[in-house]
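In the previous chapter we treated chains in isolation. Here, by contrast, the input contains two separate entities that must be folded as one system, with a combined length of 622 residues.
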Amino acid sequence: MVSVILTVTLNPALDVTYRVEELQHGHVHRVDRVSIRAGGKGINVARVLAALGERVLATGLVGGPTGDAVLAELSVPHDFARISGENRRTVTVWSTMDCRATLFAERGPTVGAAEWSTFVGGFERLASVAEIVVLAGSLPPGLPDSAYAELIVRSPAPVILDTAAEPLRRGLAAHPAMITPNADELAAAIGSDAADLAEACRELAVPVAFTLGPAGAVLSTPAGSWSARPPSTIRGKATGPGNPTGTNNTISADDAFTAALARGMARRTDPQTLLADAVALSTASVVAPATGDFDPVTYERLRRTVVVRRL
Amino acid sequence: MVSVILTVTLNPALDVTYRVEELQHGHVHRVDRVSIRAGGKGINVARVLAALGERVLATGLVGGPTGDAVLAELSVPHDFARISGENRRTVTVWSTMDCRATLFAERGPTVGAAEWSTFVGGFERLASVAEIVVLAGSLPPGLPDSAYAELIVRSPAPVILDTAAEPLRRGLAAHPAMITPNADELAAAIGSDAADLAEACRELAVPVAFTLGPAGAVLSTPAGSWSARPPSTIRGKATGPGNPTGTNNTISADDAFTAALARGMARRTDPQTLLADAVALSTASVVAPATGDFDPVTYERLRRTVVVRRL
């Protein structure tokens, strides 16, 4: 049987980008260039995996005309459940004068209990044929903080959990195969020293991987901890206007990082290679023209040059 | 036969307002409050007229899911023509910290020649039962600058033209019953002295009415010119977050001004009363909770206290 990676996006978005010459607070801006893309972390992860040639299936919750637009724009295989509410939009204003992105993210639709039950049933069926499941992104209003924990408990396949705050803490208790917390959150709780972070992660008894932006990433498992960093020549590369998901591209890089972890885990790659590959891919995504893409030449070069060391 | 005022909105919009605490350039903003409203100058004028108890019919061009949303939100009688393109959105970011609105306006769908022909035929039928026609707002891409001129020529009913730039200049040559140009544009061409403006308007041989913001308004006809201003106590009143159409509320006030002119012309009101009423209504709209609304108590008080003088 061919392995499939299942990605779950419970709060997808239609990501709209307005390109303006200069964002001026209190002014009227005529927007001549509007670009639209299906968004949400799970969808971005699926897009990266599809670009890598992996067999992937995207699921989640869609509703309303915006949900239709998300599906119409989504180029990867998908099987989303319908909800009565309408999906959210995000609006990114890209100011060409100073190359800065300002993002406005709606919260998303309110999901009902019956809709959630229906989704969970469908999820179990889809996960039963998956090699790896990726749960990624925020929860829409109406879902309890335990939503990801419930999916982890129900999933027949190992789960990578890529979320934050209470849904992450609740999910952790359900023992996912790996978590990819936000480094800023971790640092706020533990500090920013890689060895300290690795030690704290080991105590969680769940493998943890997180990026440190241009400084690389850390992977901590019960068997050991490693850090990896790209060669200095690639670090701190400026980002372009085609990649405006976040204010500084870390969202896109994080999604590529998670995608690489999912692929590596599906292939049972050893930890050092897994981490090196994830750092190479996330770094290559920073120089890509759009969210969910990556630069394949940079990726291949970095795979061979990323330096991994044991902590 | 009961008189109907027909308003035409060729480039309607779904006006979306995001309320944020503070707009920070280059940052991510979580938007907890999203409000949605059908927009476009003609639609706003129709809404004011309906609130005044006038019989009104709104027409124009709608398409796509955003067009559906515009119609769903539109509470006045309407008969719009369908186009294959999708209507635009405007996004207003209302910063509660400093009470400032930052507006992003998409350009709108590209309208095809066949779609335009179909609309013009329908317009002639609707205008044949109208007492007054109001053509208001910008043109969507694909329509020639002469689009309003063509409608003026075809209309069996007198037309008020409320637009700007080349569509206004072309429309003027088709002899509408009245134009309501933007005072800033007029001032840039002629200067800001009310008497100078009135003199220039008389030379156009078409009645002209325009607002000067809190300073009142001017009406110039071949029979004479008048200026009117509200009592000083009402001028310069601060605007609230419920009325974020423009950056300083002049769009809403202008739409109320045009609505009052349309009603007065349908009733063949004398020029001084017409101008006083329009100033009263536009001033009352500035203190209203939402675009297209007005404060009826302020309106009634101002109708009696607006000072009109001949220029």
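The longest strand of chain A covers residues 13-20. Residues 3 and 131 of chain A are 5 Å apart (CA to CA). Compare these points with the single-chain example from earlier in the chapter.
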